[in-house]
Amino acid sequence: MCEGAPVNQDWEDRVTAAWATFDDYPEAASISSSAAGAADFRDLIDALAAEVPEGSPLGLFEQACAWDSTGHSDKAVPLYQEALARGLSEVSQYKGRRAKIQLSSSLRNTGHAEEGVKLLTPELDAPSDELDDAVRACLALCLSSLGRDREGLSLVLGALAPHLPRYQRSMGNYARALVEPEG
Predict the structure, then answer these.
(1) Which of 25, 59, 130, 179 could bridge across to 37 with cysteines, CB 3.0–4.6 Å?
(2) pLDDT of the residue at 33
(3) From CA 2, how far away is CA 79, in angstroms rounded?
(4) How many CA atoms lie within 13 A of 17 on its CB side?
(5) How do residues 21-31 score in pLDDT, each as one tens digit?
(6) Closest Cα to residue 118, out of 96, 146, 153?
(7) Residue range 9-147, CATH number
(8) At residue 4, what are phi and psi to the nearest 5 degrees?
């Protein structure tokens, strides 16, 4: 399903370099950006996306990120969904996980927080990596949007606890107590 998915390191390096220039487009970073800077940045990403082999999910993922980062969650959602459907997680587990995190955030932003919860909940049991805390933070936001604040706070406290210089055990226990039935 993801025929032609591999892309060379030069392309990946140029994508990384393009994203490193994001803050050079002042309007692009604005959440309500419809300005020329945002469009120019998306054009840069579109040009890179056009280089990937047909059927590759990588260009779609980068385009989704560009729309998302310039304040257009509505345009990012279908691109993230298509990238995942084309096998992004098989091409790159890391980018697949990023896509799920970012898609769930965009779903929440467009009024579909429940879909975000369904997408991210399995990620709590995925192999651990540097994105674990981002999964929990985004899932907490989705839960909060659904009025499930105690569950969201539990996730955030649980993610924060290991980073504290002290009180890790206490915060971990408090996080669990927020969602465990009182007995």
Answers:
(1) 25
(2) 47
(3) 15
(4) 7
(5) 988 876 655 54
(6) 146
(7) 1.25.40.10
(8) 70, 20
**What confidence tens digit (pLDDT) does each residue in 36-83 have?**
788 889 999 999 999 999 889 999 999 999 999 999 999 999 999 999
State the DSSP string of the chain. Answer: --TT----HHHHHHHHHHHHTGGGSTTTTSTT--SHHHHHHHHHHHHHHTTSPTT-SHHHHHHHHHHHHTT-HHHHHHHHHHHHHTTHHHH-HHHHHHHHHHHHHHHHHTT-HHHHHHHHGGGGGSPP-TTHHHHHHHHHHHHHHTT-HHHHHHHHHHHHGGGSSS-HHHHHHHHHHHHSPP-
User: Which residues contact residue 29 at a Cβ distance below 8 angstroms, ignoring those fewer than 6 apart?
Assistant: 22, 23, 69
Identify which of 6, 3, 5, 7 has the alpha carbon closest to the alpha carbon of residue 15: 7
